[in-house]
Amino acid sequence: xxxxxxxxxxxxxxxxxxxxxxxxxxxxxxxxxxxxxxxxxxxxxxxxxxxxxxxxxxxxxxxxxxxxxxxxxxxxxxxxxxxxxxxxxxxxxxxxxxxxxxxxxxxxxxxxxxxxxxxxxxxxxxxxxxxxxxxxxxxxxxxxxxxxxxxxxxxxxxxxxxxxxxxxxxxxxxxxxxxxxxxxxxxxxxxxxxxxxxxxxxxxxxxxxxxxxxxxxxxxxxxxxxxxxxxxxxxxxxxxxxxxxxxxxxxxxxxxxxxxxxxxxxxxxxxxxxxxxxxxxxxxxx
Length: 286
Prior knowledge:
Oligomer: single chain
Number of helices: 11
């Protein structure tokens, strides 16, 4: 239990904050309510707030199709990366005795035309496909996000030029180009990652650019621009507009005169001109 005492001259900061005096005898009498007493009083027990990760998972779990897709993705990852640890096959040396062998206990899916086990081949090929796909998606998202955000933030002729490059890239039949590049270059993992990402970042750039343009027109961005929060070079009249805008958001003065309590006084509104601290002369906004 706390006891309030009036401020005194000896108490530092008297009048600004109330001082509290804790009485030990009274504090010992306080006790936490038991579950039964809280239930009798109709008080609900305190619930720990949920984390962002848990709330995100609850929203994700409401979509049954998303859960099915997650389960399928986990199954593919486990099949490709954990399966070879239990199902051992030789995917390096050919075995001509097992060429085109039918499915059996040793080879559940049979063998191909050079004697490789098809099930083991699927596991090894799945590892390469997942690694290339995930890495290409990460590269495409990173570059497309930076490109689209820059185009939407800068705007103007540079934005138009950058988006015309994206439109030209989207008009190219990328499947044909991928086939040609896979023939020209040696098809290793690094080459395939950058070749695939070179065509898939275009759609990401358009989406991010559109979202950036939307953010530029939000209310809080416009409010910041009104009070002068911009990086562009100031024109001669910018300082006057900034001072006028800031006066609209200025807190009321504590002056004793009633006429000076409003943010914008009548004398400032009727003035024909005003000089800024830098010596510029500007007229008030109409």
